[in-house]
Amino acid sequence: MQSEMKKLDQDFKHAITAIKPYILQLHDRNQIVLCRLWIEKLIKCQVEDKQLRNIYMDQLCSNLKAQQFGPPFCELPWDGPLSKIPTQLLLKQSSYSDSELWTTDDDYTRFSEKSSDRVTYNTTTDEEQCSDKTSSYRHYSRKRRMFLKPRERSRSTTSLKVINSKKPYHFNNKTPVPRLHTKLRTISNFKKFSTVNKDTSLERVPNSQKGFKSNKVNHLDRDTSTTSLSMVLDAEKACKHEIAQRDLHSDEALKLNRSDTFWSDEVFLGDTVVGDNLSRRTSCSELLKEIQQLQESNDGLKTSLNREKHLLESICTEKIELQQEIAKTNEKLSRLKELEKGARGKRDAFVVEINEQLTFQARRVRQAWETNSRLERELREILENSVNNVHGNSLQLLESKWQEKHRKLLARKQETIGRAEWERRAATDDLESQLDASRQKCIERRDRRARLEKKFQQHFHSLRAQIQAIRDDHCKWKSGHDQRVSSKVSHYEKLIETLKKERCKIVRQYEIRLERMQQTKSMELWVKKFDNYLDAGSDEKSQLEKCLDDLQQEFHKQYSDVIDQA
To answer: What pLDDT sits at residue 181?
Structure first.
């Protein structure tokens, strides 16, 4: 039992050493990763599954030799013990003895000859593999990051055909940009303003840049800046409207003051109203100055936004040019790969032609040897037949003729062999020179590709740093501008409250004045009536004077509070 296990381990080691050159010839990184994972799983196999492990190794070697990377090696290795491979998945050239991968050891060839007899396949293995695939995905995703570069981690998810693999969240997914809603207090009442839609000029960004997160952030910043501009403009309009209404009210109040000539305190009240109107006009002028300052700040905002738009357009154009250059380099690389394939095909055809020529020349040499041996046989027969009949000089003549023919045949044979060797050497020299030239071209193309990739990465990092700097500057400017706008809005609210209080005071004064005017008019009517009565007679005058005194006392009692307030 121990000897069999040792033999299986030795066979597995030989297989690993033999499979290395075929793995090095692979170009797809995903296939290399899968081979590595499968070899690690086979190395960590249990003692009971060593025989099945060698069968898996046999199948992997035959797949790599035939360049058919098929199941089960095209998928991730599952967790748990190995399951037997179905017969329909085995290749025709899966035995160890037929493949060129294996060494010429006797024990190893013995194992390869007996490998087909020791295997019994099961039809239920496909269901077991499907049940193990879901649990193996997480195990693979951890292992795979150990030998992948950070740039290739995002590419490998789409290229590998993994069971139950979901698409990750890309930058190119079209996510809706949220609309901001803000509230603004006006002078008359509180109104809700909805934000303005995106500027049509921003939609000129090409479709290839929709996936980047930086463009979305810039759109949000532009929306917030446009909303802040609209808020400020609406506040300016409301302030102007309120100022115009106040000017109209102040003009009407002045006209009323000038028309009331019958009031005793007319001059004093007119002076107070004029002073209030002047103070209000000074506050309005201050508001107009602040509004002009806000307009200037809005103009600065617009210019900064235009600059940012130009910067973004230039960045987008540069990005498009970079993508075009990348597409051109990819096309060139595909052409180079096609040329390499064509060179390999020509090399294989040339090798086949040389082998055919060598076989043809070997056939000719073999035919010459056959003719030589046939002639020797004929000469010997002739000599044996002529010994009894011919004597003396005739025998010597025959021997000399036979030796001359033999020399001629040897000379022809040496000439043909030398000619074949010379042709073979010339062909091999030409083939080696062509191979060296193709290798140098491939190395130059690889270096050029590396230089282009390095240049592209440097340019990409510089553009990314510029975009980040622009974004940071815009965030700083936005935070400062929001603070300034909020402070100005609070200042305007305070001014509005003070103006409301002043308006209430003025309205109260006008109401008191109207009441007084009504009272004075009623008194004048009473005086006129009493004058008429006085004209009637002197006896009635005394009575009327008493009545007037009584009325004046009652009037002072009733309206003493109002007079004090005035």
So the answer is: 35
